[in-house]
Design brief:
Elements (H helix, E strand, L loop, with lengths): L2 H11 L4 H8 L3 H9 L6 H11 L3 H4 L31 H4 L1
Helix pairs in contact: 1-3, 2-3, 2-4
């Protein structure tokens, strides 16, 4: 899914107009319309502002849904911390007093 399609989908889910998204993101409505049509690609700065306005992550904007995220499995191997060997040093002259 393209960035513009994601913006449109997320906007429509919220029943927002392009003007509302534009206002929330600090952009012009014309710019949002051009993004949705795929005429422009957002800079990272603009993408972040759109994500904040829509309440989504950059991953979602890029078309990666949480359902597609790789799953991390817990390994059954248990790691233990090795204790450092202790060494006895003779007391110094200052410590004897």
């Amino acid at each position: 899914m393209r960035v513009g399609e994601v913006i449109r989908r997320e906007r429509q889910l919220r029943k927002w107009t392009q003007a509302v998204v534009a206002e929330q993101a600090g952009l012009s409505p014309n710019y949002v319309a051009r993004l949705e049509r795929g005429e422009l690609g957002p800079s990272l700065f603009v993408a972040r502002r759109i994500c904040e306005a829509l309440g989504i992550s950059l991953d979602v904007l890029a078309g990666h849904s949480p359902a597609r995220a790789p799953r991390v499995r817990r390994d059954s191997t248990v790691l233990t911390r090795r204790e450092a060997p202790t060494t006895q040093r003779p007391p110094s002259a200052d410590e004897e007093e």
